[in-house]
Amino acid sequence: MYLGKADVNTYDKGAGREFLISNGRGSYGFSTVIGANTRREHGLLVVRDGEEKQHSVLVSKIEETLFDRNKKYQLSTNRYKDLVYPDGYRYLQEYQGNPYPSMLFVIHSILLKKSIFMPRGKECTVIKYELLAAPDKVRLDLRPLVAHRLSDSVCAESKGADFSVSSDNAHSISITGKGHTSRVSATSGTWSLKPLWFENLIYEQDDRIDTPSVDHLWSPGLISNELSEGDVLYVVLSQEPQSFTEKQLAEMEREAAARFEDILEQANIPANNSAEQDMIVSSYHLVDDREDSVAPIYTGYPSVDTKPRDTFIALPGLLLATGREEAALKTLKYWLTAAEKNGWVMPERVSACGCSFENGGADNGLWFVYAVGKYLAHVKGAGCEAAALAKGVQEIVDRYLNGVPQLDIVCDSNMLLKLTVSDTARHWMGAVAGGETVVTRKGYLVEVNALWYNALKTAEQLTGDKQYGDAAEKCAKSFNDTFWSFDMNGLYDCVDPETFKTDNSIRPNQILAASLPYSPLSPETAQKVIRLCWNELYTTYGLRTLDPRHDKFKGRFEGRLDQRIKACYRGMAWPWLLGQFITAYLKYNPTRKDLGWIFIRPFTSHLRHGCLGGVAQLFDGMMPYRPHGDVLSAAALGELLRVLHEDLETEE
Known about the structure:
Elements lengths: L1 E2 L1 H4 L2 H5 L1 E6 L5 E5 L10 E5 L8 E13 L2 E4 L2 E3 L4 E4 L4 E5 L5 E6 L2 E8 L6 E10 L4 E13 L12 E7 L2 E6 L2 E7 L3 E3 L3 E7 L11 E6 L2 E6 L4 E7 L7 H21 L7 H10 L16 E2 L6 H13 L4 H17 L7 E2 L6 E2 L5 H16 L4 H18 L7 E3 L5 E3 L12 E2 L2 E2 L6 E2 H18 L2 H18 E2 L4 E2 L2 E3 L4 E3 L8 H4 L7 H14 L1 E2 L2 E3 L16 H9 L3 E2 H14 L4 H8 L2 H4 L3 E2 L6 E2 L7 E2 L3 E2 H15 L4
Parallel strand pairs: 2-37
Antiparallel strand pairs: 1-9, 2-3, 3-4, 4-5, 5-6, 5-13, 7-8, 9-10, 10-11, 11-12, 12-21, 13-20, 14-15, 15-16, 16-21, 17-20, 18-19, 22-40, 23-24, 25-26, 27-28, 29-32, 30-31, 32-33, 34-35, 35-36, 38-39
């Protein structure tokens, strides 16, 4: 990832491009390439402690000022209510994202390089300043700005927010306030403790309009350094005391660079171009890679949540395509254990102790079976691990066969799964806006039963038990009889057998009936479903959640909060659905990989905007196709990587 002067020579260009670093255990650094924080989740050191469910922004940013021959150059950039000040982006010559984010500032004949990385497994952010060229000595002043707040909130005013600062040693200070402590240390320099408030900073990229996006940040003072050409200065931001030598920090820097190469070498995708390389590297931010972790897949950034449906959708691309089979197995075993403890019902959430569970999606267990099928097809010959996973699949499928009251699911005599209530928590389009259910669905849901057929066939393959094959055959017949619409030439989104009401809204859920490894549709019927989705729902970055001609279509994420929530499921486009669409198309048109590349190629441009190297969670369903939600989404990125690995990069 390389950006030149033309990519960052205005505030809007620079503020619209974000970098992300992480330490492999959920803590991260996240900001724009010009250093202006435009979201409340932005910060150089953002951590989550122990049992906490929410991240906290400790150190928001560092204000950098360079002095040369009595002239002052402010390298930072901030957005206030009525102005942008300072405008340090004017000095930014280039940005490089690999092996870690680095920015080059040019002021006449002075070249100052700034690099940012997080050592793996360590709760700290390291910023390296390197004076590449300078005719004389220069002075560099660094002033940290701390937030000490939850990542989804702001400090509404400077009054009443008490901070204190103390010197740990000559080059290190501790800042305490608002229930947090952060530490800033440097390899050299002199501290001048002059507290100062930075007030009324605006976060204009916040999608939320229900809460203020005006923040107040506190600075304890600044550290000054005299630098000559070739000098290097490291600054460490941390929560706990850290005492690294310059030699140790240099070694951490080398390890961070080597990790980039290791990631690419380990991947099962050739990564012949920079876009593929960037996506592979970004995938590593989404997985907790601690040896003692359960290897959860995070939903994305800045949400950094853990949800089973997102996990199982993303797993084939994030882990199998990138050569992380061990992490995939750990993830599957973790969720399998949770399901077993929960009576073979796949939970929505698991407590930190692993002893209590919260149920949610009716399809979570079915997506788990999908992920297991993908894993076993990928690794081949997994031995006892395969047997344990197959046994788990059998138990989960049997649970669905007998009905799952906890999920309001019953298996009817026609072998279709029926949702007995219109509880929004049971399906992925579940949302309530302004007291109104955004998408009312009850009875037979098309994607749930497509996943159910796939689960029955997977159970038959893994166990050799013909009862699952017989059930799948009956399910397939009922599926076609129930969901096929001659008027639409496609599938109903849901059918309520009690009221005989059918939802003929053209939605993308039907694509799963054609894309999953086992399809209940004939090739001719599947082709019609694919064509319907292509004609009515396809956009550049995903499949729309509703036909644009529908009277409830809302294709842009704009307006009041309730209107924005409605748009997510009434017209916005989701990239993870595009991955399923591409797979479905290539399954029945295997000689048209050229079109597969055309479907995926637009993301090459998207990777250079927003979160650099990442794929956003969802997009406007109509021009100008702006991204929204998580700027780096596990499901979206995972699906694109899966398509690259399974459908586009495989050898004939």
